[in-house]
């Protein structure tokens, strides 16, 4: 049985990060873009915890701050999205180009 090392965590985090970046760059739906940003933030959290485990730093504390930031971003982003959908009746990224409706 192979022990799980920091490299394994970093590979999983890199895969999550790449999936998130692909989702942000290729999708047109704002909800999927927000979910892809959450994937990117989770990859960052995994890196923080992995390096904290390896070097004995306080990466868990920073990971909690990132989780709180991600929750605030999701709440504010979904609120803006609901307001935009009520006015324009669409959630496509291509059509969100107005600062004032």
Q: What is the succession of H and E elements?
A: HHH
**Count of distinct strands:** 0
Question: Which CATH class applies here?
Answer: Mainly Alpha
Strand composition percent: under 5%
Q: What's the CATH topology label?
A: Helix Hairpins
Structural class: mainly alpha
Largest sheet composition: none
Task: Enumerate the spans where pLDDT stays under 50 for 5 or more consecutive residues.
Answer: none
Integer-rounded radius of gyration: 17 Å
The percent range for helix content is over 70%
Continuous helix count: 3
Which word captures the global form?
elongated
The CATH architecture can be named as: Orthogonal Bundle
Tell me the domain tally.
Answer: 1
Mean pLDDT: 87
Gap between N and C termini = 59 Å
What would the keywords be for this entry?
101 residues, mainly alpha, Helix Hairpins
Please describe what this structure looks like.
Helix 2 (30-55) packs antiparallel against helix 3. The protein contains three helices and no strands. It is mostly helical and 101 residues long. The protein has a single domain (6-94), classed as Helix Hairpins, CATH 1.10.287. Helix content is 76%, strand content 0%. The radius of gyration is 17 Å and the shape is elongated. The longest helix is centred in the last third of the chain and has 30 residues, at 59-88.
Offer a concise description of the structure.
It contains three helices and no strands. With 101 residues, the protein is an all-alpha fold.
Question: Which secondary structure elements does this structure contain, and how are they paired or packed?
Answer:
Layout: H1 6-26, H2 30-55, H3 59-88
Helix pairs in contact: 1-2, 2-3
